[in-house]
Specification:
With about 350 residues, the chain is an alpha/beta fold. Helices cover about 50% and strands about 10% of the residues. It has one domain: TIM Barrel (Alpha-Beta Barrel). The structure holds coproporphyrinogen III. This is Uroporphyrinogen decarboxylase.
């Protein structure tokens, strides 16, 4: 049994004394302890060495004390396992030197044996679960097939992902073949993560908002929903789709346990679009953590008042930024613990 089960109760629509809180990208560059490890090992070494991934996962648990841990890893370990070479360059983000641009390229990718290619992630989960000692639940995650496609086709990060979109619209057969292969790999991967001990799964669709509502259904939601259907009987699934308020009604009718909300959608709108029942997670603007601490605390309390204490998980509307002072990150978490309706 998990000692602090606020997060699990919020995901099961059970009453809570206060809402649970964690932060997307809570293991990251705003922590000096993370930067120390980063100085010694390159990015994928950190992901692929189970002891390092577990240690990095534990850092925010000790320092800012959220109500859930999220395994340190990256969504791009999945395309790497499929045979697509991905590098991570400082200040440039992910680079794919040979991006996918044709059906021929898609056919060269593989649906891997996940125990062989991603076994290091499962090992990291087992070590992390031991280190956590049942204090808080552990979240495992994957990128949505669409968001993975964005990187492997574009070849790098982008503000618009025009090349990735152009590939889908000019070569839909290749695009759907690729999306299905990523989906099949992701399902095997997430089943492995659940088996290794993850208590909850979050799917990150960080670039879903690049698509129109109609294209979103065709190129993203359909595949996310396949993933939810495949694992929802085994675990609670959270879907975080940035910029996708238009898809909230469809998502709230799926087997997802909770939906992530970004800061461009108000609590009132999010509750309206999701029918008022499903658990929502979010949606503090990550840049707002640069406000003075009293202001952060006041805004967090306002946010809880707007979402309500039940069926709600406090989080940011996207990942924490590297330039946030640790004290401000801690103030965000503390504000939730101090909440008094
Ligand atoms: O939440 C957590 O603490 C777990 C760790 C986590 C990382 N990446 C570690 C990471 C998670 C959940 C991710 C997911 C991820 N990775 C997403 C989806 C979430 C989101 O923020 O939209 C995406 C789009 C990626 C791809 C990715 N990885 C990019 C674009 C970058 C470079 C840009 C950046 O933010 O630095 C990464 C690198 C990365 N992944 C870092 C971390 C801590 C920073 C680089 C480093 O540590 O050297």
């Amino acid at each position: 049994m998990i000692k602090n089960d606020l997060f699990l109760r919020a995901l099961s629509n059970q009453p809570v004394e206060r809402p649970p809180v964690w932060m997307m990208r809570q293991a990251g560059r705003y922590l000096p302890e993370f930067r120390d490890i980063r100085d010694k090992y390159d990015f994928f070494t950190r992901c692929e060495t189970p002891e390092l991934a577990a240690e990095i996962t534990m850092q925010p648990i000790r320092i800012i004390k959220p109500d859930a841990a999220i395994l340190f890893s990256d969504i791009l370990v999945v395309p790497r396992a499929m045979g697509i070479y991905v590098e991570l360059k400082d200040n440039l983000g992910p680079i794919i030197p040979n991006p996918i641009r044709s059906l021929e390229d898609v056919n060269k990718t593989i649906i891997p044996d996940v125990n062989q290619t991603l076994g290091y992630v499962f090992e990291a989960i087992k070590i992390t679960k031991e280190m956590l000692n049942n204090e808080v639940p552990l979240i495992g995650f994957a990128g949505s097939p669409w968001t993975i496609l964005c990187y492997v086709v574009e070849g790098k990060g982008s503000k618009t992902f025009d090349t990735a979109k152009g590939f889908c619209f000019s070569n839909p057969i290749a695009a759907h073949t690729l999306l299905q292969k990523i989906t099949d790999t992701t399902i095997l991967y997430l089943k492995g993560k659940i088996k290794a001990g993850c208590d909850v799964i979050q799917v990150f669709d960080s670039w879903g908002g690049m698509l129109s509502p109609v294209d979103y259904q065709e190129f993203s939601w359909r595949y996310i929903n396949q993933i939810i259907e495949a694992i929802a009987d085994d675990t609670k699934v959270i879907v975080f789709a940035k910029g996708c308020w238009f898809a909230l009604p469809a998502m709230s009718n799926s087997k997802a346990a909770a939906l992530g909300i970004d800061w461009t959608c108000s609590a009132e709108n999010a509750r309206y679009l999701t029918g008022g029942q499903i658990t929502l997670q979010g949606n503090f603007d990550p840049s707002r953590l640069l406000s003075p601490i009293p202001k952060i605390k006041k805004m967090v309390h306002q946010m809880i008042n707007e979402f309500g204490t039940d069926n709600y998980i406090v989080n940011l509307g996207h990942g924490i930024l590297p330039n946030i002072p640790v004290d401000n990150a801690k103030a965000f978490i503390d504000a939730v613990k101090e909440y008094n309706p």
